[in-house]
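User: Predict the structure for this protein chain, please.
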Amino acid sequence: MIYAMQYELRPAPHSADFAEIGGAIATSFVRADDADAALAVALAYYRDGDWEVVVQEQPPQLVDRAACEDDLEWLEAYDDAARDGECHLFHLWPPDAGEDDTVH
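Assistant: Here is the predicted structure, written as C-alpha coordinates:
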Protein backbone atom coordinates (compact mmCIF):
# COMPACT_ATOMS: atom_id res chain seq x y z
CA MET A 1 0.00 0.00 0.00
CA ILE A 2 1.21 3.49 -0.86
CA TYR A 3 0.31 6.45 1.32
CA ALA A 4 0.66 10.09 0.29
CA MET A 5 0.95 13.00 2.69
CA GLN A 6 1.91 16.64 2.51
CA TYR A 7 3.62 18.97 4.99
CA GLU A 8 4.89 22.51 5.11
CA LEU A 9 8.46 22.41 6.39
CA ARG A 10 11.22 24.83 7.30
CA PRO A 11 14.94 24.16 7.65
CA ALA A 12 16.04 23.53 11.23
CA PRO A 13 18.17 26.38 12.63
CA HIS A 14 21.25 24.12 12.60
CA SER A 15 20.64 23.13 8.97
CA ALA A 16 23.18 24.02 6.30
CA ASP A 17 20.22 25.30 4.24
CA PHE A 18 18.83 27.58 6.97
CA ALA A 19 20.12 30.82 5.42
CA GLU A 20 19.27 29.86 1.84
CA ILE A 21 15.85 28.21 2.04
CA GLY A 22 12.81 29.74 3.67
CA GLY A 23 10.65 26.65 3.59
CA ALA A 24 9.14 23.89 1.53
CA ILE A 25 6.03 21.96 0.77
CA ALA A 26 6.95 18.28 0.92
CA THR A 27 4.76 15.65 -0.66
CA SER A 28 5.77 12.19 0.47
CA PHE A 29 4.80 8.83 -0.96
CA VAL A 30 5.55 5.92 1.36
CA ARG A 31 4.99 2.18 1.01
CA ALA A 32 3.71 0.95 4.38
CA ASP A 33 1.23 -1.39 6.03
CA ASP A 34 -0.74 1.44 7.63
CA ALA A 35 -0.96 5.24 7.88
CA ASP A 36 0.93 5.40 11.18
CA ALA A 37 3.90 3.52 9.75
CA ALA A 38 3.90 5.74 6.64
CA LEU A 39 3.80 8.84 8.82
CA ALA A 40 6.71 7.60 10.93
CA VAL A 41 8.83 7.05 7.79
CA ALA A 42 8.08 10.52 6.41
CA LEU A 43 8.70 12.30 9.71
CA ALA A 44 12.00 10.45 10.19
CA TYR A 45 13.05 11.47 6.68
CA TYR A 46 12.28 15.13 7.38
CA ARG A 47 14.04 15.04 10.75
CA ASP A 48 17.11 13.30 9.32
CA GLY A 49 17.26 15.94 6.58
CA ASP A 50 17.23 18.77 9.16
CA TRP A 51 13.66 19.86 8.42
CA GLU A 52 11.04 20.92 10.96
CA VAL A 53 7.31 20.45 10.38
CA VAL A 54 5.38 23.73 10.33
CA VAL A 55 1.95 22.36 9.51
CA GLN A 56 0.36 19.19 8.20
CA GLU A 57 -1.25 20.06 4.87
CA GLN A 58 -2.62 16.55 4.21
CA PRO A 59 -2.48 13.55 6.54
CA PRO A 60 -1.38 10.16 5.19
CA GLN A 61 -3.97 8.80 2.78
CA LEU A 62 -3.98 5.64 0.71
CA VAL A 63 -3.43 6.36 -2.96
CA ASP A 64 -3.43 4.13 -5.98
CA ARG A 65 -1.44 4.57 -9.16
CA ALA A 66 -4.49 5.63 -11.17
CA ALA A 67 -4.99 8.62 -8.86
CA CYS A 68 -1.53 9.89 -9.84
CA GLU A 69 -1.78 9.44 -13.60
CA ASP A 70 -2.77 13.06 -14.29
CA ASP A 71 0.45 14.38 -12.74
CA LEU A 72 3.70 12.99 -14.14
CA GLU A 73 5.75 14.09 -11.12
CA TRP A 74 3.35 12.33 -8.73
CA LEU A 75 3.19 9.26 -10.95
CA GLU A 76 6.98 8.95 -10.93
CA ALA A 77 7.02 9.48 -7.15
CA TYR A 78 4.37 6.79 -6.70
CA ASP A 79 6.39 4.35 -8.80
CA ASP A 80 9.58 5.22 -6.90
CA ALA A 81 7.82 4.60 -3.57
CA ALA A 82 6.40 1.30 -4.83
CA ARG A 83 9.91 0.22 -5.86
CA ASP A 84 12.11 1.82 -3.17
CA GLY A 85 9.73 2.23 -0.23
CA GLU A 86 9.52 6.02 -0.23
CA CYS A 87 9.82 9.14 -2.37
CA HIS A 88 9.73 12.77 -1.20
CA LEU A 89 9.06 15.77 -3.44
CA PHE A 90 10.12 19.20 -2.17
CA HIS A 91 8.92 22.52 -3.56
CA LEU A 92 11.20 25.15 -2.00
CA TRP A 93 11.00 28.90 -1.55
CA PRO A 94 13.68 31.42 -0.54
CA PRO A 95 13.94 32.87 2.97
CA ASP A 96 12.66 36.26 1.86
CA ALA A 97 9.49 34.89 0.28
CA GLY A 98 6.44 36.98 1.01
CA GLU A 99 3.35 35.62 2.72
CA ASP A 100 1.74 35.26 -0.73
CA ASP A 101 4.50 32.82 -1.76
CA THR A 102 3.79 30.23 0.95
CA VAL A 103 1.16 27.54 0.69
CA HIS A 104 -1.19 26.86 3.60
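Residues 2-97 form one domain.
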